Structure formats: structure tokens, C-alpha cells
Amino acid sequence: MTQTGAAAPTGPLLFSAAPTVTLPVAGTDARFPVHRIYCVGRNYAAHAVEMGFDPDKEPPFFFQKNPDNLVRTGEFPYPPATADVHHEIELVVALHQGGVDIPLETALDHVFGYAVGLDMTRRDLQGEAKKMGRPWEVGKAFEHSAPIGPLVPASAIGHPNQGAIWLDVNGQRRQAGDLDQMIWKTQEIVSYLSGLFELQPGDLIMTGTPAGVGAVVKGDRLHGHVDGIGDLEVVVV
Ligand code: MN
To answer: 194 CA distance to ligand 1 centroid (A)?
Structure first.
């Protein structure tokens, strides 16, 4: 991005800039540089109902995580200031083209590929924030809150709009759904979001979670899966 009306900034950095967060891409050693992480709330009817909401009455709504919340280590350190951390298995959409007011018909052209991700949530802090009408960052955008697997290019698999999405904890099925249950489809999310924000190459969108969210404890082994995209295994440490 250029700074309007100002000369290009010069001078040494006061300290090292944070490294660019990247995701590996299946089938290549090229990496996907991450810009923002957008998340869709309550995008599966059964999950909206389990959280106490009527799924029929809501336009999509969004929150964000920070790019450096993304973890690739296979470990999720149990975060501070909470006693109720939940798993949310999600399909992650990765954009290689940005834009504003992207039409529905061409929205999928902006999608580079897909990954399996976890929207880890400090549910107690999120619940408090909801009750007080406060923002969700403390519940959603904390360190290590976005474990995400490797990207699979759409050029290899197309744009999945059906297929199983599930999460096992210690070998027990906790969450199960199908991508065809998404209330707002990938192209609708990209188009709608581009009316609110200027999307950029490198943006990730976590598309919401099916029913069955629940608490994790240290030592839990999470195994998430989306048909056609792959698996994500994370240990709570
Ligand atoms: Mn979520």
C-alpha cells in the first residue's frame, strides 16, 4: 500500500519487523503470505441453535483474528485468563486476489485455495463480552488461537461446496457437519465481505463451525478433517 500524499517512508527500522506469517501450499514449496484473518460467526444453523440464536434471522457477521495468531506447530498452548476454551473446526478460504464490491458471479476467482482450521475460542471471555456488548477480541484473537493446516489450491480440487467436516477429540467425534450446511456459501461470504472491507491477496476467511463445539483441556488431541482438503492434528499443551 502507498501512503497518499506522502513521500515513501525512509530511515532504519527501530527494531526488527515481525516476520510475515505464511502457510505451506500442498504440491509446491512456494508459501502463501497471510494478510488478514477474517472469521464468519454462526454459519451453520445447528451451531447457531446450540449457541442460543435463530439461524434464519441474521445476515452474515464477521470478526477478525490477528495473522500472528496462526499456529503451524501442531501444538495449542492452553491460553491464560480462561477456564473454558472451545474448539471450532472450520473450512478456511484463502484469497490470492483482493478487491471491493466483488460480484457474486466472479467471487470464486479470488479464491486461491482451502485449508482446515480451528477457531479456538475463550468461550467464557467471549460470553462475558457478548453480555456486556463489548468486542470479541479477548475471546477470539489471542495467541495461538488459529491453528491452520496446509493450503490446497482450488486449481487442484475446485471449490468444495459439500463434503464432511468433522473434529475428533481423543478419538471421539465431537463435531460433525457438511459443507453444504453453510448458511452463507464461500462466494457469498467473499462478495459480502468485500462490501465491508478492501480485501487483499493473502486474506484468509474462516467460514464458521458446525454443531458440537466444546471445551478442551491440556493433553487433548484434536483431529479435524474436511473432505477433499485434508486433516489437521493439534495437541493442547
Ligand atoms: Mn468460529
So the answer is: 19
| Residues in the chain, pLDDT under 50 | 1-2
| Cα 157 to middle of ligand 1, angstroms | 24
pLDDT (tens digit, 9 = 90+) per residue, 166-183? 999 999 999 999 999 999
Question: Ligand 1 centre from 2 Cα, in Å?
Answer: 33
User: How far, in Å, is the centroid of ligand 1 from the Cα of 41?
Assistant: 6
Ligand 1: distance of its center to the CA of 3 in Å?
A: 34
> What DSSP string runs through the chain?
-PPTTSPPP-S--SSPPPPPPEEEBTTSS-EEE---EEEESS-BHHHHHHTT--GGG----EEEE-GGGEE-SSEEPPPSS-S-EEE-EEEEEEESS-BSS--GGGGGGGEEEEEEEE--EEHHHHHHHHHHT--SHHHHSSTT-EEB--BEEHHHH----S-EEEEEETTEEEEEEEGGGBSS-HHHHHHHHTTTS-B-TT-EEE----S--EE--TT-EEEEEETTTEEEEEEE-
Q: Domain 22-236, what fold?
A: Fumarylacetoacetate hydrolase; domain 2 (3.90.850)
